[in-house]
Amino acid sequence: MIEVITDIEEMNRLSREKRSEGARICLVPTMGALHEGHLSLVRIALEKADFIVVSIFVNPTQFGQQEDIDIYPRDLKSDTEKLYSLGAHVVFAPGSSSMYPKGYSTFVSVEGLSEGLCGRSRPVHFRGVTTVVNKLFVIVNPHIAVFGRKDAQQLAVIRRMTEDLNMDIEITGGPIIREEDGLAMSSRNSYLNEQERKQAAVIYRSLCAAETLVKSGVKTSDNIISKVRNILEETAMAKIEYIDIVDVDSMKSVDDISGSALLAVAVWFGKTRLIDNVILTV
Ligand code: AMP
To answer: Rounded to two decimals, what is the model's pTM?
Structure first.
């Protein structure tokens, strides 16, 4: 049995009950339209805890005014079936007006970390993410929460928030799950037309080329970024938003790689913005 809860108080009550019974609670926050990337996080949760809550909430505060919230894919029935067959315990799917009732005015923002990379073109995005994750943490009160490394900046921002606000929650990152041609799975991949979808595989190819370059001894960010840019530019439909190499924790650009660093890219195919990343280790 899987329970679908939309009521905030009911979710909170159930979590409190489970805690008092000694259960270890794990939260996997998502916006639904679940794919293997999301499901891999639920599998990690099942290994780490005994009561798994998957939240499904297309969070309006993390979308800019020109962004795709209205067309964002939604399929609660199929999501619930997938989660049931995996063995998750609760789908928490609150409505927008109960999460943000009239008069709502409180936001949580992590400074610095939220400003580079995706934060440059999406200035309200991380404030929306940290606000909703904060609310979900208060409602579900989990011991552990699992996030994908596909959204590496988001993971860094949430780790920072949890530490800064003294939250007693273990934050776990899961690996990026990819399609056969290397494209990172994303609910937004469904927006791509056939030609865009085919060409989008270039993103992962460019990241792999960077890894190969680093293995051959290149450590200078400029050289690695040029290589990635050249490969992406060979694909007619790819429009680069950013290519950056940053410190894994601070998300600040680094000139040279020592130890390891994150190579992160955002690339547009038509109206669809795709992000991906890889850890480069010397
Ligand atoms: P979203 O529904 O896009 O907000 O994503 C919910 C969670 O799933 C986030 O922690 C994402 O980082 C994670 N996620 C999304 N796509 C992938 C993927 N391809 N591999 C691993 N995790 C992912």
So the answer is: 0.98
